[in-house]
Amino acid sequence: MKPVIAIVGRPNVGKSTLFNKLTRSRDAIVADFSGLTRDRQYGEGSVGERHFIAIDTGGLAEEEHLVDNLMVQQSFAAIEEADVVLFVVDAKAGVMAGDLSIAKRLRGIEGKAVYLVANKSDGLDTDVALAEFYSLGLGDPIATAAAHNRGVNTLIEYVLDALPVVDEPDEDEVKGPKIAILGRPNVGKSTLVNRMLGEERVVVFDMPGTTRDSIYIPYERNGKPYTLIDTAGVRRRGRVKETIEKFSVIKALQAIDDANVVVLVLDASEGIVDQDLHLLGFALERGRSIVIAINKWDGLESSHKERVKSEVRRRLQFVEYAKVHFISALHGTGVGELYGSIDKAYISANMKVSASLLTRYLEDAVAAHQPPAINGRRIKLRFAHFGGTNPPSIIIHGNKTESVPESYRRYLENSFRKALKMVGTPIRISFKTGDNPYGSRKSKLTPRQEFTKKRLDKRDAKH
After folding, report:
1. pLDDT 10s digits, 417-444
2. pLDDT band, residue 40 (cuts 50/70/90)
3. Domains present along the chain, CATH in parentheses
4. Per-residue H/E/C for the chain
């Protein structure tokens, strides 16, 4: 599991700027939920071989004015999730009442490193400017000017020293597909986890070695090995009816990274909401195989079921290769059928095919539907080969491949999926344009042939 850095502080102290610096290796924002995780952004960063997740939290004002504010709750939830906390203050403004409130809360935290970052220190006498921040009781302030990238490298060195070195579980101990159960709060994830383990399990034990509370649970079903990644903690059967389930975007991201197959759990009584699509997007971005479980299906009226099925067809058409199951985790209806789709998705994601067979499928696809012409010249796709698995990666070589439109890329993806009978997994297709092997050679034409060629070229140009 990747370690986590939380950035907290009052509004307008430069938290987002520092967040962008820490995640500079990957510009894309990993998550930005509205409502549930208001004003929190998640991003991935790396320095050398060290990778981490950074959280940019909403600004905290004086605590007494925001006791019931969701932003405050989510910011302090981020602190609880983090391995390292960066408390950002404004060096120009000095110590404010809000800083004192936040510092008091941070001083009570045990078991994780907290660094005081005095940002916007450019143009100041740092010894004088930083002196008053010692009153916060959080050790030596680190002077930065994140907007100008000053002091950021020093800060990163401190952070790297504090981040835990995570020991991943031994791959020899992880058997079969690694399955992550993903979904919004209260859709029945914990109930499904307990149901999937159920009475048929042969071996169940917690695998140590991670700093987070996600658990690897190897078990067997009908003689086949599986490893379930449980992010909420496996509950006893007597507690699975609790209405409030712990939800963490961090744990979801970490589980997706570690999984081979993601089972996305949706609530049939609520239909598909935007956050379901956000979570699905995270899994697809990571290239993970997908199985969709529409939970709480029992007891719904026929008209409601038809509306849900229609919504699934309409809103999930971009992932139509994923198998959809209508289940009841509480009663066990349809849960056993998930395993067939999980197995097929896992096999598809790890499939390896020879270059000759891929090239033949490419030729069939091109023969059925030619690539478009660019400036009167046809794109030529010559051969294909595998570039990796989980997700399957196919590399296609040809000329003018940089001009292949996205629509044709999707056509090839669907053609390969149909030919290879792949189920549940996205396919990554990349193109490579080969250099003209004769492009840099000097002409071998005789002077007379050169003269004739020029005359013909001029004539062709006129016509």
Report:
1. 999 999 999 999 999 886 544 344 444 5
2. low
3. 4-162 (3.40.50.300), 178-349 (3.40.50.300), 351-463 (3.30.300.20)
4. CCCEEEEEECCCCCHHHHHHHHCCCCCCCCECCCCCCCCCEEEEEEECCEEEEEEECCCCCCHHHCCCCHHHHHHHHHHHHCCEEEEEEECCCCCCHHHHHHHHHHHCCCCCEEEEEEECCCCCCHHHHHHHHHHHCCCCCEECEHHHCECHHHHHHHHHHHCCCCCCCCCCCCCCCEEEEEECCCCCHHHHHHHHHCCCCCCCCCECCCCCCCEEEEEEECCEEEEEEECCCCCCHHHCCCCCCCCCHHHHHHHHHHCCEEEEEEECCCCCCHHHHHHHHHHHHCCCEEEEEEECCCCCCHHHHHHHHHHHHHHCHHHCCCEEEECECCCCECCCCHHHHHHHHHHHHCCCCCHHHHHHHHHHHHHHCCCCEECCEECEEEEEEEEECCCCEEEEEEECHHHCCHHHHHHHHHHHHHHHCCCCCCCEEEEEECCCCCCCCCCCCCHHHHHHHHHHHHHHHHC
